[in-house]
Amino acid sequence: MSDTRQLLGIKGGSETKNIWKLRLQLMKPITWIPLLWGVVCGAAASGNFHWSVSNVIASFACMIMSGPLLAGYTQTINDYYDKDIDAINEPNRPIPSGAISLTQVKLQIWILLLGGLAVAYGLDFWAGHSTPSVLLLALGGSFVSYIYSAPPLKLKQNGWLGNYALGASYIALPWWAGQALFGQLTWATAFLTLSYSLAGLGIAVINDFKSVEGDKALGLQSLPVVFGIKNASFISAGMIDIFQLAMVIVLISIGQHLASVILVLLIIPQITFQDIWLLRDPLKFDVKYQASAQPFLILGMLVTALAIGHSSLVII
To answer: How far apart, in whole angstroms, are the C-alpha atoms of residue 13 and residue 7?
Structure first.
């Protein structure tokens, strides 16, 4: 079990000297899941995805770009700039433990970044885009990832701004990539997904609970540091619930009533698990909460995307 946690990049995993396991741990595969799903949602929202061999291959390539490559780049560069914080919170992680050299980490950052941009360029070529929209999204997302972790901006120093940047990167950006690849990204759906990303802000707060000690020591103003762990858990739950309920209102307004009912039914178990795990002890039960509640959140995203793909909103 601890070996699996190590490979997925979850806190509490066992230590290893295998260089490839260390590289994978830096990339935190557990964080790829919402990005892979975001691409699926974007393809569904485009209203133009077909179950052909070329479309399936293109969608898979877009998932590789969003997850292992660019999310892997994001997580690796975050570990590089967070090595002092991790030395306090998670001293057994690859960099603070000395299991991997900084030169190797820098090489991994560049390979993942350039690989992701190369795949993005190839996807634009496949789609016949006159404007390389997927590449531009990849460049924009990579830039946000850099300023999230790196000084002098280091967005994660501000709990609200940093967590929203993270939420948008995990919900809006892969959705936009999937939609731009198979259809047309519109201002209406861009705004909708940015609003949905406020629910992602609530999810991002959960990742801050495990880092409170190091954040306090180094002056990072995460929400658990600023408001306290208990209040931050209520902020997290509130953001997740309120902005999903806002999507219910949007679905009703565009005539997607069945989808709105399904979304409500998917929000109810999330609230239940918040009461069981998140609001009682977020430090102890953060992983259990995410494992139990997140599947309902991402299913709700797909329901919303499919509804958009079948409504007039997609062509505004």
So the answer is: 8
